[in-house]
Amino acid sequence: MELDDLKNTWKQGETKQQKTPNIMELIHQKSKGPLASLKHAFRRQMISIAILMMVITVANARNIETIPGYVLYYTYIAFCISLILAFYLNYRRTSKMESMDKAVMTNLEEYVVQLEQRLKWQYVGSRFVVLLFIVLVEVLPLFYHARMLDTWHSVSPLIRFLSYTAYFAIVYFVSRRVKQKKFGQYVDRLKELVNTMK
Description:
By secondary structure, the protein is mainly alpha-helical. It has one domain (33-197). It has helices spanning 2-28, 34-59, 67-99, 105-139, 147-153, 157-197. Helix 2 runs antiparallel to helix 6. The longest helix has 41 residues, at 157-197.
C-alpha cells in the first residue's frame, strides 16, 4: 500500500510539473496570450486617445478663445493626458510581466489584482470627469458668456437635465461593456490560468 501511495504521489507531482510550464506558455504567448492581448489593448487606447485629443483641439480652435472654452478645453486635455498616463503604466507593468522568464505565481496574482483595481479606478475616474464636465457646462455661463454655452442654456432646464441623465446613463453602461470587451476578458483569462496553477 505504501508503495502504491508513493507511486500515486510521484505521478501527481509529475503531472503538476508538466501542467505548470504549459500554463506559463499560454500566459506568455507573444501573439495570442492574455498578456500580449492586454499590451495591444493598452497601446491601442493610448493611440486612440491621443488622436481624439488632436481632433478635438483642431475642431474647437475657435471656441477656445473664451474663458469657458479655455476651462473646458484644458480640463479635457488634463483628462486625456491622465488616461494616457494610466494606460501607459498598465502597459509597462504588463510588459514587465511578459518579459519575465519564469513568472512566479505570486507575482501573477499580484499583477491581476493590481490591474483589476487600476482599471476599476480608471473607469470610476472617467465617470467622475463626465459629471465634472456637466457641472462646468452648467456653472460657467453664470459667470462668463460663451456663444456655444449660451445657446445650450437657452434650452429648457428640464430638457438639459434629462439630456445629462441620459448621457451619463449611456456612458455608465457602455463603459462597463467596453471595459469587459477590451480588458476584462483577458484579465478573467489570466485569473483562470492562475487558479489552474494552484
